[in-house]
Amino acid sequence: MERVSASGFDMTMLDAEKTAAVDLMSPQLLQDWRRHATQWATEPPFYVASFGFPQAITGTWADARAVLLDRERFSALTPPGHPLGLFDIFKGLPQLNSMEGESHDRIRRLLMPFFSGTKVAEVADGIGRLVAEMLDAVDAAGGEFDAMSLVAEPLVERTLLEIIFSVEPEQQREFTAYSHIMPLSMQPTPEGQYQPAFVEQWERTTGLIEQLLEDRRREPRGDLITTLVSAQDDGFAVTHEEMIGNVLAVYAGAQLATATSIGVLLMNLAAHPEEYARVRADPALIPSAVDESLRYHPAGLFGFPRYALVDHDLGGTPVWEGMAVQVGLASANLDPAKFPDPNRFDVTRDTKGALSFSVGAHHCIGSMIARAMLQATARGVVERYGELRLADPGFQPHYGGVMGELKPDEIPMVARP
Fold first, then answer.
1. What does the pLDDT look like over 135-190, one tens digit per residue?
2. 214 CB contacts (<8 Å, ≥6 apart)?
């Protein structure tokens, strides 16, 4: 295997038959994501040139798992000076999704109890109360509503900021502003720098997190921020930057992924009335309906990138040390070898093995709370509404957000008792 560089790479050195003309930043890719993902799901890994340097993309379920589970050949840690480092919504702060080895495992041990089944049970009533408030707002709007702005986004926002972080209302606005500015991290200036507006809001939000850390040190609460401060005070090896980065990552990850998943769950149920009727007739199907929605339409095309640690043959495609690998979670979930008839939405499907929350050491730490929010939303809707439909039967969402994110800008719907 000829050794090459992952940055400043000569694309002529790649096998042309394994290279696709796919622009990862193209809006058209997102709008036509299902066609692309369906195709990739049956193909070996291939190369693309995006951001001016080569990357590999995995398509099948087996290849995605091979990358995610192999910590000896692939790392989530961005190599120093790698071009993808510029497109970091956390601006270099250490956080679980881009940490590896002892550092990752140490921080995961610290955070895991707060996202355990015991903790989920503690916050379940609060989540249920918030879902009821969201649906009351739907009723107040006459049953005609946008699933994203009236249900999904405020539910996640309030669950995170009120229940998980215990943040005062006047402080919540800084977090919300950061969630709105995050896409700018993917739009560098001509000089290859972050947009000033993004930097300004990042500094305001991280400054607020620093203030919250000090506040909890003086006045502890039963929230995640207190958990971090108390651990450090008790001698746990967690740095100031790791605390800030992981608070920011928990917030950003939920706003990007969980809010999307809630809105898409409502969209999928509304677009498949027979499946919605099955769930209404048998609410025990709610957990499987949630997992099928996550498989059928995940929150993004890819997970966080991995970087090859050694020259390696991946599913018949060479990758070289330092090369970025985009793991196709959406295509893996549409692999017919794993999920027969994958583009059919079936609330009774066995979704075991779906990669909606990734797999391995970097499996989403907040998956249990995310599922709790999704199931509470589904339960509230099926108990309250006999009719759930899209306002326009031919509705096709327009996707926005950061690279590869499948977050609909809006989902106009109608709900009636």
1. 999 999 999 999 999 999 999 999 999 999 999 888 888 898 888 888 787 777 77
2. none
Q: Each residue of 191-220: b (16+ CB within 10 Å) or e?
A: eeebbeebeebbeebbebbeebbebbeeee
The SS3 call for residue 53 is strand
Distance from first CA to last CA of the chain, Å, rounded?
63
Round to whole Å and give the CA distance between 1 and 319.
9
- How far apart are the C-alpha atoms of 357 and 363, rounded to whole Å? 6
Domain boundaries, the chain: 11-416
* Pair 34, 5: CB distance under 8 Å: no
How many whole angstroms separate alpha carbon 332 and alpha carbon 341? 13
Distance between CA 402 and CA 178 in Å, rounded?
Answer: 13
Over residues 196-235, the pLDDT tens digits come to 998 999 999 999 999 999 999 999 998 999 999 999 989 9
Q: In whole angstroms, how far apart are CA 129 and each of 80, 308, 373, 398?
A: 45, 45, 11, 30
Average pLDDT, the chain: 90
* Alpha carbon distance 274, 329 (integer Å): 27
- Spatial distance between the Cα atoms of 247 and 243, rounded to a whole number of angstroms: 6
Query: What CATH number labels 11-416?
Result: 1.10.630.10
